Amino acid sequence: MSDVVLKDLSGPVVLLGAGKMGGAMLEGWLKLGLPPHLAVVIDPHLPDSVALALKARGVAVNPPAHVVAAPAVLLLAVKPQVAPDAVPQVAPLARPGTLVVSIMAGRTLAFLADHFPDGTPLVRAIPNTPAAIGRGVSVAVPSATVSTADRALASALLGAIGIVEWVDDEALMDAATAVSGSGPAYVFLLAEVLAEAGRAAGLPADLSARIARATVSGSGALLDASDLPAATLRQNVTSPGGTTAAALAVLMHEARGFGPLMEAAVAAATRRGKELAG
Ligand SMILES: NC(=O)C1=CN([C@@H]2O[C@H](COP(=O)(O)OP(=O)(O)OC[C@H]3O[C@@H](n4cnc5c(N)ncnc54)[C@H](OP(=O)(O)O)[C@@H]3O)[C@@H](O)[C@H]2O)C=CC1
Ligand SMILES: O=C(O)[C@@H]1CCC=N1
Q: Which compartments does it reside in (predicted)?
């Protein structure tokens, strides 16, 4: 965890887009001590119930621009497709020294630099949805204009929702997005297809869904608690000549197994990230 204390920020954190990811990050910051009066949400489409609940906690929601103090951070969490319209709406809020953090998939540091004055410190990051329970993974890359203090501030904001991995090479970001940004969806899909496969093998659907879900979450917890490599944990399940070995002969098939399938999936997500750069 970074030394930056969220309650001592020089100005508010302005969040553009408080959807699934931005909303989860906001919860993490508030939990970690960001005073609600230092949180500003700009999201014209927020459901009334969510906007009212945030306001009741002291968060400013869609305030007029002239009442927003110089932001310490502007965090861009709208969809990459709406960025060309949405980002210029908040860019004028930035003041010299405001740190801009984007979590938009695909959108590059060059895209951000086009929308902010020269010298603005910029961070492109990609978090993931386990952020909602403080178990997120963020991969982040700084622009050349990011100081040590800016980086510590970005680490504090991203660290409020999980672990942070910094990279120096922006070219890695689309592949990181494909692995950790999108990755939770692959794991949830595993729970779905395992449940469906159990049903196809004769289990009642609700029983199959319960044991598949608990198996995926329990295995994740074991992976987390253990120092052993994933391959060893897999081998620990696999008795020679037993049931797991029979299944793994299918799943680890060189041409049609999980390996080549996942490689193709991550490659497709990586390509899509490059397309979203605009
Ligand atoms: N979900 C994920 O797992 C991850 C998402 N990301 C990135 O986070 C960003 C947000 O994704 P996610 O939270 O899933 O998407 P959401 O659609 O849930 O959130 C985006 C929010 O921004 C709102 N919005 C749309 N237009 C504007 C605007 N002009 N000004 C302000 N707010 C606006 C949306 O409203 P409305 O819904 O009405 O359009 C919505 O509330 C994306 O760029 C995505 O690439 C990164 C990593 C993981
Ligand atoms: O699907 C997407 O594009 C976003 C980025 C990573 C996870 N969700």
A: Cytoplasm
